[in-house]
Write a structure and sequence with these properties.
5 strands, single chain, two-stranded antiparallel ribbon, disordered C terminus, 132 residues, 13% strand, alpha+beta
Length: 132
């Protein structure tokens, strides 16, 4: 049975290199899932897309689109003086982030829109037979 997606999901994400830090030291990025239309729009922007290990050629544009569309907030993002910054909106936020952080978060967003082999096998209904 098909179900509607909501754009109001708020998923926290902590960068891999900060996961061993105390909660007070971690920056938390909040993202939402791409809608189906956004996912297809992002795919049209990349010729080779993303790989599990990170960005492939052509994936940078898809990643940037995903960040612009789905980064909705952060906590504990510090300025150069170590003071917390307010979230300025995704387009402006990207200008403050490192390329590796953009890539990591973008891959997380995009991979959240793709079904794994395990997800496909866990569907509620039977798989269609070839030629059915």
């Amino acid at each position: 049975m098909a179900r509607a997606m909501t754009r109001h999901d708020r998923v926290p994400y902590v960068l891999e290199d900060e996961r061993d830090l105390s909660a007070e030291e971690q920056t938390i990025f909040y993202v939402r899932t791409m809608t189906g239309a956004e996912n297809y729009r992002s795919m049209s922007r990349a010729t080779l897309g993303l790989t599990v290990s990170g960005l492939a050629a052509g994936g940078a544009e898809r990643t940037l689109y995903a960040i612009h569309a789905c980064l909705i907030g952060w906590e504990n993002f510090l300025d150069v003086d170590g003071k917390p910054m307010e979230f300025p909106g995704a387009v402006e936020a990207v200008k403050l982030m490192t390329p590796s952080d953009i890539g990591e978060i973008g891959v997380f967003i995009v991979e959240g829109c793709e079904l794994s082999a395990e997800d496909v096998g866990n569907s509620d209904g039977p798989s269609p037979s070839p030629g059915a």
